């Protein structure tokens, strides 16, 4: 079975039947061995081979070596290579990085039994589009091996497809498990950039999961209303789904019924699994949920590590009504919304926009949710339900381009303390630095999950505990925190430094401050505001520092200072309003120059605001003067008109003509 990913305006749509009928099936059999499989579970050992990218004899399809080259894709298809089709050294190295990242993810998620089988493949055999011209040996320490190819494909938008081609019998459960497969990456679709790295790993992970066994084979036929559906009724899967959706009456999990033969029945129903990695259109931030892991557990040959499951916010805890019809979806958190409104997407991977539309044609009866047969969302595979879809230029893993409309719409040019990267997520935030008031909008901030009920958010490089909201010294406005269960999966960080208390909250320069907490032995630096303090002693539960302070003007204003402990540039904890510091007057003057140098932006902003308010005052003063003068002019004109009117009402003397003769 072949699984194909197509890049659409909505994401990456996985289809396979279109090319499945033209793809050779492997001649390699399911192997049985006289040696039993190991009885213990261990992390799946993943391996891959890129020889099909450098040695043409290992790939049934030709790749492009230079622009303008003519290659034969099939007996009836002669293809001329474009620049994007050329398989360069840079692209090969990038593909290698993709699979290195995939290797780590798969090994963390799946456990298997070791299957003992003959790992030597005779020559002249093949695995999908991978060919073995001579004897080939699968790595000995491998539980699943992938052959990688990369060549053009004539269907526009195709990114990758995958297949399992070699199976071994797990004698412990008497079921077969795929031990080998192949993945082809369409060369022209590959974008070897850091910005696209994560989502392209997600696409390859999706495809590899198909090769591992997510093929819809657990699906059974079920009549639901007027629809004939494929659903999964296995109790292992349904139990996880009940827990996620909060629906105790749930008896099955639906598979996709839309998207054509290429997508239907081999993915989760997209309408209730948006942002999950195994729905029909993979997102740029796909989540491996407990429900997908349960599917693999139900196959019998995998023992998933549920602790590595990602948080899936879509539909969490919304009850049985959420599963029935999207007209019952809530009107917040990225679900049903007013057309054109900007919000964070439900998975918080991006700033999005509500994708409701008014269609000229009547929608399919099953996709009419909002009382009007012409109203619905643009995502047909999601049954035309309306929700917040990501804006292509506004994903949180990449900095927003200054050329994009949203850069100005969200006031991204101002300092909101925002940051971008693989750990960044979208939050509602009105934070603005050096401005006493906030402006409600949506911005991206880096997140560090301690567990599934507690996380921190990085604002201007400093991590703050996120409970209900965060206010930061030096910023107007606040950031609204989200439910930790929507942000964090089951993974736990046990080494992040935390402060529980300080023994003296009011301190002076030169004092010894005793800090109590957890994991303090990893701390390398301690800051009071932005002044680094000398560490006198540290242990796992206590720090002692000598108080120093070179930012006295701020303290003079607020009488409070922030306390930050730092393990490295990306691991720290910051606490506002935890301590008060006494600074002598002479110290303020001695260090004022230093403060000016380190806070020059603040100094520069003050005259700007003064000028702004002067201009604003001048504008309103001038406006009042002009309005008054205009009123006076109108009053004068009215009086003149009245007087002229009175003259017209008086009887006029008849004009006489005089003839003067000389």
What keywords describe this structure?
662 residues, Elastase, domain 1, Leishmanolysin, domain 2, Leishmanolysin, domain 4, eight-stranded mixed sheet, globular, disordered N terminus, disordered C terminus, metal-binding, zinc, transmembrane helix, transmembrane
Mean pLDDT, to the nearest integer, reads 84
What is the distance, rounded to the nearest whole angstrom, between the alpha carbons of the first and last residues?
125 Å
User: Structural class given helices, strands, pairing?
Assistant: alpha+beta
Shape type: globular
Overall structural domain count: 4
CATH topology (fold) name of the largest domain: Elastase, domain 1
Oligomer: single chain
Q: State the CATH class of the largest domain.
A: Alpha Beta
Largest sheet, if any?
8 strands, mixed
Instruction: List low-pLDDT spans.
Output: 1-10, 15-23, 553-558, 650-662
Q: Based on DSSP secondary structure assignment, what is the total number of beta strands?
A: 41
CATH architecture grouping of the largest domain? Roll
Q: Considering DSSP H and I runs of 4 or more, what fraction of the residues is helical?
A: 10-25%
Number of helices: 12
């Amino acid at each position: 079975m072949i699984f194909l990913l197509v890049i659409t305006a909505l994401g990456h749509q996985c289809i396979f039947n279109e090319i499945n009928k033209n793809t050779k099936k492997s001649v390699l059999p399911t192997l049985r061995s006289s040696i039993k499989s190991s009885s213990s579970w261990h992390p799946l050992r993943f391996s891959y081979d890129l020889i099909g990218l450098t040695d043409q004899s290992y790939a049934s399809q030709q790749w492009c070596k230079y622009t303008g080259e003519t290659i034969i894709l099939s007996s009836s298809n002669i293809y001329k290579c474009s620049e994007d089709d050329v398989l360069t050294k840079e692209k090969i190295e990038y593909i290698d990085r993709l699979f290195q990242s995939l290797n780590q993810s798969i090994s963390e998620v799946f456990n298997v039994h070791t299957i003992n089988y003959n790992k030597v493949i005779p020559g002249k055999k093949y695995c999908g589009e991978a060919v073995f011209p001579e004897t080939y040996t699968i790595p000995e320490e491998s539980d699943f091996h992938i052959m990688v190819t990369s060549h053009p494909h004539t269907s526009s938008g195709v990114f990758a497809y995958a297949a399992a081609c070699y199976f071994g019998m797990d004698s412990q459960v008497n079921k077969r498990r795929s031990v080998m497969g192949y993945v082809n990456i369409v060369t022209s679709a590959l974008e070897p950039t850091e910005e696209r790295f994560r989502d392209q790993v997600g696409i390859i992970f999706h495809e590899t999961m198909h090769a591992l066994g997510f093929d819809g084979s657990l699906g059974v036929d079920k009549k639901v209303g007027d629809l004939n559906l494929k659903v999964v009724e296995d109790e292992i899967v349904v139990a996880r789904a009940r827990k996620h959706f909060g629906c105790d009456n749930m008896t099955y999990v639906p598979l996709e019924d839309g998207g054509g033969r290429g997508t239907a029945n081999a993915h989760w129903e997209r309408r209730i699994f948006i942002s999950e990695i195994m729905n029909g259109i993979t997102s740029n931030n796909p989540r491996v949920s407990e429900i997908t892991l349960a599917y693999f557990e139900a196959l019998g040959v995998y023992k998933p590590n549920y602790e590595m499951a990602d948080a899936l916010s879509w539909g969490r805890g919304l009850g049985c009504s959420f599963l029935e019809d999207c007209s019952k979806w809530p009107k917040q958190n990225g679900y049903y919304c007013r057309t054109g409104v900007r919000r964070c997407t439900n998975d918080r991977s991006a700033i999005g926009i509500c994708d409701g539309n008014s269609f000229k044609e009547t929608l399919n009866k099953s996709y009419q949710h909002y009382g009007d047969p012409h109203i619905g969302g643009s995502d047909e595979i999601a049954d035309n339900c309306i929700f917040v879809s990501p804006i292509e230029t506004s994903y949180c893993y990449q900095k927003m381009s200054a050329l994009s409309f949203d850069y100005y719409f969200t006031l991204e040019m101002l300092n909101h303390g925002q940051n971008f990267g693989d750990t960044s997520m979208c939050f509602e935030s009105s934070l603005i630095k050096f401005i006493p008031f906030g402006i409600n909008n949506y911005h991206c901030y880096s997140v560090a999950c301690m567990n599934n009920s507690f996380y921190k958010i990085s604002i201007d490089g400093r991590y703050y505990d996120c409970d209900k909201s965060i206010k930061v010294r030096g910023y107007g406005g606040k950031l609204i925190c989200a439910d930790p269960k929507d942000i964090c999966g089951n993974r736990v960080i046990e080494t992040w430094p935390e402060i529980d208390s300080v023994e003296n909250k009011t301190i002076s320069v030169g004092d010894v401050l005793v800090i109590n907490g957890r994991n303090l032995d990893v701390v390398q630096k301690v800051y009071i505001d932005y002044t680094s303090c000398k560490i006198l002693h540290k242990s796992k539960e206590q720090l002692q520092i000598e108080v120093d302070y070179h930012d006295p003007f701020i303290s003079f204003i607020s009488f409070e200072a922030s306390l930050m402990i730092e393990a490295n540039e990306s691991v720290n904890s910051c606490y506002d309003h935890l301590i008060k510091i006494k600074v002598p007057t002479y110290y303020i003057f001695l260090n004022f120059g230093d403060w000016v140098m380190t806070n020059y932006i603040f100094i520069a902003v003050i005259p700007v605001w003064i000028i702004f308010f002067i201009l604003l005052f001048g504008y309103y003063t001038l406006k009042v003067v002009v309005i008054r003068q205009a009123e006076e002019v109108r009053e004068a004109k009215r009086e003149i008109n009245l007087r002229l009117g009175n003259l017209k009402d008086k009887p006029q003397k008849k004009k006489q003509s005089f003839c003067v003769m000389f």
